[in-house]
Amino acid sequence: CCIRAVGEGLRTGRELAGRVCVGGGAHVMSASMAMGGSGSGSLDSFEARHPILTEEPADDGQRQRLTDELKARGNGAFKAKSMREALVLYTRAIELTPGDHALRGNSSMVQLQLGDFAAALADAEEAIRLDASWAKGYYRKAQALEKLTRYDEASFAMEEAIRRTDNEKAK
Question: What is the rounded distance in angstroms from the CA atom of residue 47 to the CA atom of residue 139?
Answer without folding.
Answer: 33
